[in-house]
Design goal:
It is a single chain. The chain is of the alpha/beta class. A 10-stranded mixed β-sheet has the order 4-5-3-6-7-2-8-1-15-16. The chain has a 6-stranded parallel β-sheet with strand order 9-14-13-10-12-11, with helices on both faces. The longest helix has 14 residues, at 191-204. The protein starts with 6 loop residues before the first helix and ends in a 96-residue tail after the last strand. It contains 19 helices and 16 strands. Belongs to the DEAD box helicase family.
Amino acid sequence: MSAWGTGDMAAALLDGAPPAEHGSEAPATEKKDPQAYGWVAPTKYDYETFNKTTKELEEAQASAEVPENQAEFGGIFSGDWANKGALYEWKEEYGDVGPRFEALEKQLFGSDYHVRTGIKFDRIQQISVTQEGNVRIDPITSFDNAGLHPAMRENVKLAGYNVPTPIQQYVLPAIFKGYDVVACAQTGSGKTAAFLIPILSKLMGKAKKLAAYRGNPANMKEGERYRAEPLVLIVCPNRELATQIFDEARRFCYRTMLRPCVVYGGCPLREQIPLLEKGCDLLIATPGRLIDFMNRPALLTLKRLKYMVIDEADEMLHSDWENDLKQIMSGGDQEEGNITYLMFSATFPKNARDLAKEHLAHDHVRIRVGRAGSSHVNIKQDVVFVEAHAKRQALFDLLMSAPPARTIIFVNSKRAADEVDDFLFNSNIPCTSIHSDRTQKEREDSIRAFRSGKAPVLVATGVSARGLDIHNVMHVINYDMPSPQYGGIEEYTHRIGRTGRIGNLGLATSFYNDRDSDLAETLVKTLLETHQVIPDFLEQYIPEGFTAEGSGDVEKLKFEADSDYGDGEGENGEAPAEGGDNGSGWGAPAAPVQEAPTAAGWAATQQTIAPPPAQPAPANNGGWGNAPPAQAAGYGSAPVKSAPSNAGSNWGQQQAAAPQASGGWGAAPVAQPSQSSGGWGAPAPPPANNNNNGWGPTPSGGSGW
């Protein structure tokens, strides 16, 4: 499999079955060769390279007979720290906008390096956007009429962003008008660009006036150093997300004098201090390392700070960063009255709302894109019953039954990550893993190998992979379901959000058993919200008015009030009425619902205003979240000649009536009489109702593996 060769998997997601035929499935006991199924050969970790000092790495790079292709990783050599990504170094003689450099442009904007909008991007335009509070924002419909600085408009084009996503439509004008912002949006909806684009665009015309003086980093003399005085501070919960935002900032700062830097734990201070001393206008940081630098005023001051962004706020509060956040937001030398505060997340629990109420201006903008904590229909969600002792074989068979594709496997513990990684590697699956016990260099190398396709299967704990935005992640597997102690349904939402990003299609497969029953009720509601098919072992949790095929009025779904997952509480602990304040605790009445431009296209100027809350909700009209017309059973299934037998469809059993081989997603097994049905790798019977969003039926599960 090439680094970016995901055509087979993409076709499978679109057409309902992969085009490649592997013949009849072998029995589970027969050893399979992953390379025969299209997977690249696994490679061992290069300890020799990654244990070298910075000086040894530079000498090896200089003496290399064949120069390494830096463009693949944005200007970073193997063994380098992620904070050393290539930057546009400004020179005084450039004027307002610097000249273009083709080699650097390729490193920053190469299409293989970051996520671009997908073929199902049109579905995103149907997401409803709710403005809460007293402030109203008129959304933009195009980047052309957003008032961007010319250099920023060009960078947006180079990044492949053609039209703004719903959250970008509202956040861009809010920031341009100077409002504090609280934004809650689905994962993979473009939150990072929503704050980077307007903030940097506003500063581009004022950078010389606002920024601290510094020399040209390319010509700095030995001993010449400057204190970092950032204009923008972005705080995020983990190291991988910090370096990812840094990569995005490097793109949007291209051809400007704004200089981004990133600091995070695990990387030696000696590797970060010299980069800060060259000057810093935009600082991305994790809380612990940021406070370390805040206690070193000779290296860092926040007195020039104009913007503070708290990204993934809910995760930082879940991770006991609350005291650190309060210190960062008010304990530095910044002038609070001159700072614009922005908070972004996919969910907003009460402690995050309290933090916003304490620090943000009273007239701040509050925006919700879809329901807080929701996923979207670009992700097909399969839930499969697998007993704990059978998970490894089920995982291997699942990977063998699908076309090779970039896959993230989530587990609940560091020990499980190591064990699953070891099992897959010894099974010749090209894999790598990340968790908090790995050294920072090991973590960065794992992400780099995953991005490049060298190790297209990544085993990760939920926290370590929070916010990862990697091109062509086609499949997410919940090897362990996130129980409430591991984040519950919010964590499930974040995990599956690693695929299906910005209009791309994705598949999420979750292994479920009786130990996960405390998650079942909310999981079923989450599946029904995007019209997913409910497996038979979860049918008892289907609310009244809904069917196992995923049909029903999603407006009637009620999630737990004022939980970390819900939007807030109403009277008597019930969910708030539509159009109400949602019990947010922010103290302002809710705004009328506004929706992003719909069928007229992104560039349309007409807004669709929903009826007042007192009126009945509008009928389903084929918009976001509604199932499309019935289609033939596709993804994961082959046609069956007869109705399924009455025997329980237990995991690992065979179909009573043998189907014909169809070259589908896991070819049909050889015809063989049996008393039961529903084998692993065998086609599932089609549901009674094909109202399943065109993905095909989810395999029914039973009680056994």
